[in-house]
Amino acid sequence: MTGAHGPLPRVVVSRRGLARLNAGHVWVYRSDLVSSDGTPAGALVEVLEERGRSLGTALYSSASQIAVRMIAPTLVSDLSAFIRARIAAALAYRERVVRDSDACRLVFSEADSLPGLIADRYNDVIAVQLLTQAMDAEPARNAILSSLQESLRPEAIVERVDARVRELEQLPARESGLLAGEKRETVITMNGVRFHYRALAGQKTGAFLDQRENYAAAAAVARGEALDAFCYQGGFALHLAERCSQVTGIDSSRPALEIAEENARLNSREIEWLEGNAFDVLKDYAAAGRQYDTIVLDPPPFAKTRQALATALRGYKELNLRALKMLRPGGVLVTCSCSYHVGEADFIATVAEAAQDAHRGVRLMERRSQAKDHPTLPGVPETNYLKCLLLHVNN
Ligand code: SAH
Question: Which domain holds residue 108?
Answer without folding.
Answer: 79-188
